[in-house]
Task: structure prediction
Amino acid sequence: MGKYVLRRFVNYFILAFIATVTAYITSSAFMDPAARYRGQNPPLSESSIKSILDGHGTNPDVPILERTWTWLTKIFLHGDFSTTVHNNPVFQEIMTRASVSLKLLLIGSILGAILGVVLGVWGAVKQYKASDQTVTYASYLIIATPTFVIGVILMIIATGFNRLIGTSLIRFSGEYTADIPPGFFPWFTDQLSHMLLPTLALVLMGAATYSRYQRSVMLDVLASDFIRTARSKGRTRKTALVKHGVRVALIPMSTYFAYAFGTLVAGSAMLEVVFSWHGMGEFTINSILQSDINAAAGSVLFIAVLTLISSTLSEVLYAALDPRVRI
Amino acid sequence: MATEIPISTTADTDVVTPRSKPTSRLTLIWRRLRSTPRFWVGGIMLGFFVLFAVFGNTINIYSPTDQDIYALNEAPNAQHWFGTNTIGQDIYAQTVAGLQKSLLIGIIAGPSASLLAAIIGSTAGYFGGRIEVVIVWFINLLLVLPAFFILVLLAPMLRQLSWMAIVVFLALFGWMIMAQVVRNQTKAIKDRDFVKAARYMGVSTPRILSRHIIPNVASILIVDATLGVVSAILTETSLSYFNLGIQKPDVSIGTLLAEGSGAAVTRPWLFVFPAGVLVLMLFAISLMADALRDAIDPTSGANRD
Result:
């Protein structure tokens, strides 16, 4: 088991490395970091722009491969991921922002997956009943809605709700309130009131897509022979479904979780921007808008590491669930 | 009935009893589709939106670029059916124009991505060996390197080109997962007798792929192409929301939503109409794709008994 997981992990590690280097090279090829300084008033001289860029290691006069090599050696020898255009170390910036994003991403994707699995199984058991139809139509409606539209709609509803009860119970701007009284309880309620809407949006997104897949996999399982065998040897309908059905239906889903995770990362990045959270999503989009090569490569590294962890986890889950896989 | 032995009652009649033809696959699929309510709900809605996109502006006196300076920021009324924005542009006219562009983007990009998936996936599965390893690595790389990131990165460059460039890129980054599915399917059928027979008869490899392999995975490809329309439109909308997709003077639903989302609470018509039209249209396409999948897939729960 350990050896297998390690081998898969190394495989994904190499992928993450190549993805990050590719991101660095493509960003260097397509971005013009000097443009940001040329428009400044008072105008900077060409040589001072060049020296600023040299400081970031993004001087376009140096060949791209040479820059990439310098960038890589700095990472591997000193653990230094270079600096952003605002002169902050990229690594430090990612560390502060990562917790913001992970909070949303982890809670949202886990709750979304659980809700999706439950709804999918339920829909399959109640196939073509009114409840199944409702869930199906609702999830297609959510899948058809762009992420930021879900965010804006939730904001509109929350505004109405706040107006109705006369106090801003649900907050949807920023990640925390600046002036809350000290102590755990005020902090906790403040977190809840800020997290509610973005998490809800992410959960809806995840649950909608997962439930569709879970439903169709579960339908296949329900029609297979071993469910009939379980029933005929005297298991009740409920335990046959849960112990034999759901367990088997989760196997193909574990692969799908890893694939769908990328969509959730992109979705949560958009939600961060909509709800003005200062997380990795905002960092990624800003890095590109500001032609910040080091920051862009850093954000791809962050996403690649997340993908690496989720892919490895999904393979472990697959191996743990599938009785045919013995590793 | 077809196997019933014909009993000749009169010796001199030469009439051949018409043998009932075996039900063709297309007839079967159509019969299943016909009895699915989802197909009809989706189909009628989609038909309405296509008509709306094509002919919507012929019954409107304003064009998307007109500015009615006597009606700035107006709520929906008899003159401006969906209201106007800050510079007096008619939201109805803009929504129709945006819908045209979004629909066009989806219809071109979605199926193109499926075509790419079919070619690359079947090539990887059929040849196996080193070619397969390289393709699978490339697919995994593209899955780790977020497509949205590359699209955003290339956006400033795409901005100078026409909107068609965005369509090309949406297709170029939308094929990976489907290619994996096609590859697995190809591996499952490439050793079947009909493929072997074709190979031993000297049929060329591209012809085997296009005549024997791809038709066998066509059903999932059709569903994928339909869903690809949805995901291409969604991606374009998100790109345009961050001002990275379609650029002025072109409008798409995404650019309209980007302008309208800030005023979603105070002047809801700027946001609600384009968003509603987009969501309902994509909803219709998804419902049709779902019905299509149920009808095509012989193993799906609906067709089992």
